[in-house]
Amino acid sequence: MDRPRILVVEDERVVAFLLTRTLEAAGYSVTPCADGLDALEIGLKEDFDLVLLDQRMPGLLGLEVLQRWNAAGRSFPVIMVSGITGESDVIQALELGAVDYIRKPFSIQEVIARVKVRLRRVDP
Amino acid sequence: MNRLVFYLLIGLIVLFVVAAASLFVIKAVRRRIRGREQRRKNRFIDMIGELVVQGEWKARVFRRYASDPVFRGVLLEYLRMMAGSDRQHLMEVARQMGMVAEYTGELRSGDRNRRVRAAEALAEIADPETLTDLVFALTDPVPEVRVQAAAALAHIGDGRAVKSLLATLDQEDAGNAQRLADALYGFGSTAVDEAARYLSSPGNHRPLVARTLGLIGDIRAEEALMQALDSTDQALRIRAAAALGRAGTPRSVPYLLQLLSDEQWEVRAQAATAVGSRMDQRAVPWLKRALTDDAWWVRHNAAASLVEIPGGADALRLALDHPDAYARDAAAAVLLSSGLAGEAVGDLTSDDPLVRNPAMDLVMKLIRAGKGAFFINEGVPPELVSQLHHGGQ
Q1: Taking the alpha carbons of B250, B254, B255, B259 in that order, is the dihedral positive or negative?
Q2: Are B183 and B147 in contact, with CB atoms under 8 Å apart?
Q3: Closest Cβ–Cβ partner in A14, A25, A105 for B53
Q4: Rg (CA), chain A
Q5: Quick one: which H or E segment has residue A85?
Q6: Pairwise CA distance, residues B350 & B35, whole Å
Q7: Would the N or C end of chain A have less CB density within 10 A of its end CB?
Q8: Residue B134, Cα to own-chain centre: how many angstroms?
């Protein structure tokens, strides 16, 4: 059975590395992406079982990426990754269909747990 | 003469070329250095990240780079982004590397820049063992050191530091006091008892602390906030009234209702919002009266609060027939902004007359109150808007 595919959209290298390697070590197939515009394009072309989407990014903000995916009929389970000051962003993301959010700073175990919950049916 | 001008010109050109070439070389060297540092940084990010992911806390590996400022910077970035047990491990590594001891030592350095950098680093590490040193840094003559020390203490969250933080905050100017109040907020409920006591002191920043107590929203602050309402400090009364919206219980509602007749319009406006947050039905008749207040903010806040309280929206609809034009305006504005008018538009086409007729009535009154453009934007045909404006159905 194929491993679940996860798109990690995050511009901060430390966070991107942590998320990517943690999820790879947990057995998922991870596509990292550091720019909102690139994320939009990848999401329009490829299918993912889950997306971890940062809000503050160069190119396009996470919420804008989510809006444009919705407008194009692309629907993925999205977990928003947000800084401590981004409460309104989180609420808006949930209204746009995001399924969950992770606040920075985060615990690696918590990230894995949340991802597993969302991918329960397709766990590797 | 001509020859002199010629040589001068040549000299200037040569000077310009040399300067341009030097600038180019300096920039190239800087770019190269930056590129090399970035590559080193990326290497450390991958290295530390891999150790974190694998759960391998090899102090030996970390100690090898202990004196490298790039490595330390990356370690601090990881500490900033991580929570939970992995962060605890990483903090232990920072201790073993001697980073914590070194930075706490630098807090006593004679060089102000070193003290600022040390305080910033300790704010990232947030090691509970540095509590005493950070409390000491709250008395530093450099404001940035005090702010960073306060941030570190908030990150650690040990309530024993709150009294010292408040003592420092009390001596700050307005700008810095706000930054220390942010740190106080970071303590959350741990800060409430001490901060509530500060409100009854002759402190310089009591309004700011009252506001922070409201943001924390812990009801243990209620008694102190209610007492602050009797203060002669008007700024404190305004902040305390606002704070009771989040940090109050039904017990404080009668006090807030009395404040709707206060002499200060700012107090009345904050009390109007606070009772809305409490969603207490006892407030409805008081808020209806506040719709005719002299101050626009009080009328607006009273209307906005009525929407929040069960039964309040009906009072707002009735206020559209109020003989006072100011009350009608306040009610109309909030009915539009709260979405109730938009819902009525959807109900206009209902087959059920019990749904359609009240909606029609509301829309008609709002159109007569001058809000016709809103309904045209919502898709109501302009001819229907015109018809309703003139009272037809």
Answers
A1: positive
A2: yes
A3: A25
A4: 13
A5: none
A6: 67
A7: N
A8: 24
Burial of B35 from C-beta contacts in 10 A (0-12 / 13-18 / 19+): exposed
Structure tokens at A83: 């800084």
**CA dihedral over B82, B83, B88, B89, signed as positive or negative:** negative
B315: number of Cβ within 10 Å: 18
ipTM for the complex shown: 0.86
Can you point out the beta strands (E) in A46-85? Answer: 50-54, 78-82
A80: β partners: A53, A101
Which residues of chain B approach chain A closer than 8 Å at the C-beta? 42, 45-46, 49-50, 52-54, 74, 77-78, 80-87
* pTM for the structure as a whole: 0.77
3-state secondary structure of B171: coil
B94: Cα within 13 Å, side-chain hemisphere: 32
Chain A residues near residue B50 by CB distance under 8 angstroms: 21
pLDDT tens, position by position, B5-18:
888 899 999 999 99
Tokens (6 digits) for B300: 């607006």
Q: Which residue of B42, B53, B155 is the best one to mutate when testing the A interface, meaning the one whose CB has the most A CBs within 10 A?
A: B53
Mean pLDDT over residues B153-177, rounded? 94
Mean local confidence (pLDDT), B299-307: 94
Angle between helices B143-156 and B112-125 (to 10 degrees): 10
Position A121 confidence tier, pLDDT thresholds 50, 70, 90: low
Residues in chain A: 124
Res. B392 pLDDT band, cuts 50 70 90? low
Contact B81, A105 (CB under 8 A): yes
* Helix H or strand E encompassing B352: none
Span A5-21+28-41+48-118: which CATH code?
3.40.50.2300
Q: What share of chain A is helix, strand, coil (3-state, %, to 5)?
A: 45, 20, 35
Asked whether B144 and B126 are in contact (CB, 8 A), the reply is no
Amino acid at B286: W
Asked whether the beta carbons of B202 and B174 are under 8 A apart, the reply is no
DSSP element (H, E) containing B155: helix B143-156
The span from the CA of A67 to the CA of A122, in Å, is: 26
Tokens of B333: 């504005």
Are residues A17 and B49, on separate chains, in Cβ contact within 8 Å? yes
The residue assigned the tokens 């919206």 is B245
Minimal Cα–Cα distance from B47 to chain A, Å? 10
Residues B269, B271, B275, CA angle at the centre, nearest 5°?
125
CA distances in angstroms from B141 to B138, B144, B225, B292, listed in the order given = 9, 9, 32, 51
Q: Which of A16, A6, A1, A3 is nearest to A77 (CA)?
A: A6
Instruction: Round to whole Å and give the CA distance between A31 and A28.
Output: 10
